[in-house]
Amino acid sequence: MNVPxxxxxxxxxxxxxxxxAYIVPTADFHQxxxxxxxxxxxxxxxxxxxxxxxxxxxxxxxxxxTDGRYFIQAAKELEGxxxxxxxxxxxxxxxxxxxxxxxxxxxxxLGFDGRTVAVGEGRAYERIAESKDGxxxxxxxxxxxxxxxxxxxxxxxxxxxxxxxxxxxxASKLDRVRNEMxxxxxxxxxxxxxxDICWLLNIRGNDxxxxxxxxxxxxxxxDSVELYMDETKLxxxxxxxxxxxxxxxxxxxxxxxxxxxxxxxxxxLLDPDRLNYALYNNIPETVKKVEARNPExxxxxxxxxxxxxxxxxxxxxDSVAHVKFMKWLKENYDKEVITEMSASDKLDELRAEQGNFxxxxxxxISSYGEHGAIVHYSSSPETNVQxxxxxxxxxDTGAGFYEGSTDITRTYALGEVTxxxxxxxxxxxxxxxRLADAKFLKGCTxxxxxxxxxxxxxxxxxxxxxxxxxxxxxxxxxxEGPAGFRWKERPGEVDPLEAGMVITDxxxxxxxxxxxxxxxxxxxxxxxxxxxxxxxxxxxPITFVPMDLDAIDPEQMSAEDKxxxxxxxxxxxEVVSPxxxxxxxxxxxxxxxxx
Length: 595
Fold this sequence. Notes:
The chain is an alpha+beta fold. It has 3 domains: 3-146, Creatine Amidinohydrolase, Chain A, domain 1 (3-Layer(aba) Sandwich), CATH 3.40.350.10; 159-299, Creatinase/prolidase N-terminal domain (Creatine Amidinohydrolase, Chain A, domain 1, 3-Layer(aba) Sandwich); 302-591, Creatinase/methionine aminopeptidase superfamily (Creatine Amidinohydrolase). Helices cover 34% and strands 21% of the residues. The strands form 8 sheets. Strands 4-3-2-1-5-6 form a 6-stranded mixed beta sheet, sandwiched between helices. A 6-stranded mixed beta sheet has the order 12-11-10-8-13-14. Helix 14 (305-332) crosses helix 15 (340-352), helix 16 (419-436) runs antiparallel to helix 18 and helix 16 crosses helix 19 (559-576). The longest helix is centred in the middle third of the chain and has 28 residues, at 305-332.
């Protein structure tokens, strides 16, 4: 079936239940950002393959909401689908809630699979339906009813992370969580977010695309952890270790019935932004619910000393791989056939040579020429192009090492590039360097500091349509809250920056039909001096890859900007050169020379 045929089949199901609109988010049952093949319902019904977006299908029309990272990609993928693109945040474009409030008819019925919608969102849909004297139906997976060749749920085995990687035992983490539960007066803590569960139990898996997570739910009490997952994924050794920490195993979906047995008077701590609507509605009304953010979110975002030491090692490994890749690319792009996909594969080969490489940490972005203007472009056999002796190749890729996850973006000049391209590249480099040089008082958020990266753009009447940086998980989600760099507040990324957080620094510029440029380093948030004005903090770059001097125009840089670049490149050479052969060292000297 093509997309219009699928939508027609969906409408038949909607008619059967009397639904006027059906919502299909990009989500599994755990509010994960990236999902396994089984959960790609929004992709199935629209044809849009990006990692973020929500479809709304009405009786007559079909719509897809997605953000600025995907406008170009979505427009291309939706051609001929009958699905209309709704550009989130653009003038005149309603939010999904505003749209439904306007379009849902009186006594209308709104449908969605309640397992894929968070509590807060589900409540909002409730209110909209009630305002129309209508109702919601959240018990039906209509996509599943028409998706005949739907992939099965993952059965990949889990693995444990040793203390030399985690730096903290499960028992210690449980103590911290239980102390938080006591502060809330909670008897049980319901946890459904996969990264929080995997962090807490020091286990990882292969159930989600790129993120090494395990499909699971957990209910934490003061003396046990009720863990809901496919136990065939666990080795005897892992089971024994979990049992020693009071973990009791249950079938994956059993939580939906078990939660109905919560006793009157019990107090449950849960996060309405991360718990799904269907599970929430199975909790008896006689049970008191304390709604607050999962304490694990901040705990895992602030890395401990062992994690930081390991992350530094992972960053050096990936930096070495990138330097080797850059040398290979510069010396071969005009001598052999290199494509977007083969370039990406080469980078992963070089990562594997560094040891302890598990897999990419997210879908690789390897985009040449005009493809670089598509912020989250993903090359495929249909779009894969050969590199030429002109323009830019942008690679935004990451690695999952046992020592941690990485996320690095570089843009490389292939042959001659135009003066305008150099001007744009230099602008992005200056933006990156200025944020990386941040000094600030403790208590600042990424919203306060984002101006350091945006000012060079805004001074020129320009901007980039994505956040400047996100937190990075330790072999968890590559995008991790609760802090980040962006120019306006976004729920889940507004916490003050704390020492031990790792945040990316990735400004960019995107010229549709021509080129795209992004430069991304990871920054470690550190404590500086403390004086009568308070505790000062600073950002430390922990990624060490040259910014391509073939694309830098020194005339566009101030003396301070040149110093920042020269100091960074000096550090790149100091850190990476010990891992290189002599010819590679000589090459690196050229690409880290002072300007």
